[in-house]
Write a structure and sequence with these properties.
Radius of gyration: 18 Å
Order of helices and strands: HHHH
Strand content: under 5%
Oligomer: single chain
Shape: elongated
């Protein structure tokens, strides 16, 4: 199995379910950013497989952590999102640009 970023309680869950000690390490900043990127792509792929709210929750969890890593928070991101929506619109009208 390749290494991957997991939620904080996963090693504890593995210990409880299997009785085995998982091999883990704590990522340094650069590795953590790279692993967050991989995790986000993984969660997006999983969402596209079945379009379930649980997968959107996983995507949001990764985005929340990413926002903290880059030194912002969801309030700032929401403000930026609303500003873009005000100036450029959202996706409510389902417009497809053909040319």
């Amino acid at each position: 199995m390749n290494q991957k970023l997991v939620r904080d309680k996963i090693p504890e869950i593995i210990r409880g379910e299997t009785g085995k000690e998982p091999k883990i390490h704590i990522a340094k900043e650069r590795e953590f950013k790279n692993e967050l990127k991989k995790k986000l792509l993984e969660e997006v792929d999983e969402f596209f497989e079945d379009f379930q709210p649980e997968e959107l929750a996983d995507i949001l969890e990764v985005l929340i952590k990413f926002s903290k890593v880059i030194g912002t928070d969801l309030k700032d991101i929401e403000r930026i999102r609303m500003n873009k929506k005000k100036n450029r619109g959202g996706f409510e009208k389902r417009i497809i640009l053909e040319q």
